[in-house]
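Project channel, design review

CF: Before we commit to the Bacillus oleivorans constructs, I'd like one complete example in the thread so the newer folks can see what an input/output pair looks like. Taking TnpA family transposase.
RD: sounds good, go ahead.
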Amino acid sequence: MKIARGRELLTLEQRQDFMQIPEDEWILGTYFTFSKRDLEIVNKRRREENRLGFAVQLAVLRYPGWPYTHIKSIPESVIHYISKQIGATPSSISLYPQRENTLWDHLKELRSEYDFVTFTLREYRIALKHLHQLAFENGDAIHLLHECIDFLRKNKIILPAITTLERMVWEARTMAEKKLFNTVSQSLTNEQKGKLEEIITSQHPSESNKTILGWLKEPPGHPSPETFLKVIERLEYIRGMELETVQISHLHRNRLLQLSRLGSRYEPYAFRDFQENKRYSILTVYLLHLTQELTDKAFEIHDRQILSLLSKGRKAQEEIQKQNGKKLNEKVIHFTNIGQALIKAKKEKLDVFEVLESVIEWNSFVSSVEEAQELARPADFDYIDLLQKRFYSLRKYTPTLLRVLEFHSTKANEPLLQAVEIIRGINESGKRKVPDDSPVDFISKRWKKHLYEDDGTTINRHYYEMAVLTELREHVRAGDVSIVGSRQYRDFEEYLFSEDTWNQTKENTRLSVSLSFEDYMTERTSSLNKRLMWLATNSNKLDGVSLEKGKLSIARLEKDVPEEAKKFSASLYQMLPRIKLTDLLMDIAYITGFHEQFIHASNNRKPDKEETIIIMAALLGMGMNIGLSKMAEATPGLTYKQLANVSQWRMYEDAMNKAQAVLVNFHHKLQLSSYWGDGTTSSSDGMRMQIGVSSLHADANPHYGTGKGATIYRFTSDQFSSYYTKIIHTNSRDAIHVLDGLLHHETDLNIVEH
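CF: and here is what came back for TnpA family transposase:
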């Protein structure tokens, strides 16, 4: 069946990959191992080549699913495996295709014996209907082709030419996209459509060289009150379009993410070339996702401002101690001298004042006491009492924060939200006094010490507001308080299936544990008790571990790498041939195929040979932190525009994660890797990188000098493969990001200990 050029989804190499017969043990055991009945049917043929040919036809119909005539090559290992089962000579397969009628007779018999179905227009329509629903959830062509083949194989339908499958996927995607675009577009009012047109055609009033869409896409830059207000300005602009009324909640999350990813990459001129439904749909989904990102960024800036507030308080206290150190030491010496004089006066029953004046003149003593009063800090001092003058720096943005962002919480945290509402009301009314009955129980002791004026009843507004904003930050970060419209800080319930969805899907979860909480806890408790009993029984037999008087002691580990191993390692490295990094990267790409994961975000095509070279150059430029401009200058034949294009359309986060997973999986399967470990344990650590541009993640850290930087938090398995990487704030605690790597890596590693 010939198909239009535009409906071809795969390259020639990709088609070969789909039709290639794998040689791994699992495939051999699952699809190419014959039962007793299979052997009886195969052995009905008298000639050796016919028995082997018939058996091979049966095997390839089971997997990959195409008829024998469609398969261009079958691995020798597969022929040997099949021939061994039926007692035939592998070389006899060369005699099998001599009579074409025999091939078709055997195929007809296989259809009859095993209920294989020939692919006709009826099967095309059935498969297309199945694909249409899947395409509505995920538009990735490769994913849909795999799903299509699995569906046909499961229903014992003999696969047609792969170009026919491509056409079917193309048609399903087109139908799904049309339905998706119509669904979103029809939910929009004419006024909303007009505003969507405006953001891609009109210039921003304050930035004449940018469209409104370009302005909305601008990265936030360094966290500051001014940056916060700019983020909120963009957030309120999108909210003004009232896109939350658009009905997209029933659409699949994966499809919405794909549309949002496209929207983030298209320039305004590209949107103007689209049909209206497509233009409005992609813009709408992208802007709805952008509101979540802007909400998260706004709160992240607040988070950083509170951190900065507390940090400046600590630094102010340290500065006071530095400046007053000499004077304080002077007062300590005076105190010592005066104390000794008083002790002497009491012992020897002398006149106290005479003895005192023998040590220090009275006027000097009075001056010293006055100076000491000025230097004195509260008895239980910390830096909180130094923050009051910082209040007005927070006031530059906090009224906007409380006005624009909406917070929800459980009943336990209602006092905090009541306090937020009180401050919001004070801001709107212009009042200055905090009501005396305002909730304070949720405020920590550190802040409570400074909460009241000298009369003990009047609440100090400055400290109350700073305390509430600090507690709000802590509770949001802990997950106790959620932010409406946020992705990162949304209500925990939103992460879960609805009850109706769960009831529909729970029977097909394929979970290896009981769905009953009681049964699960009973099994887990029993398992834990068994392990504890084993530990109690074998506590004296544990190597390097001792339990004495309720205390656990673990012996110090020996050196991980003996000197002999280091010398041997150095000698092995000397044997390796010298190779250019560029050549090595290209070799690894073609050995592992990791470059095929850089699928174009718009047309879903894998990179060809020329694009692969550009991708490798872009990877080198970013990996060595020299940037794309310098990489283009250093690479003959490549331009900055080419590098920028692949980095924009192919090297998005999801593609990078999948490419990394391919490399890790390939490395994990190598026999050599098993000498270091089995891939079940791992560790993680951060590596700080200096950054020369404004970024929310970039900040100064006194341990690393004065420059600003961010931290690359990397997870490494016991096989020394880096299976997950995340950029985090340089002053953030590593521990809060551990679960991200353990749960969200896409590799085959089964990490059980970290």
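RD: helpful, thanks. Residues 1-6 have pLDDT under 50 and may be disordered.
CF: Residues 136 and 180 are 7 Å apart (CA to CA).
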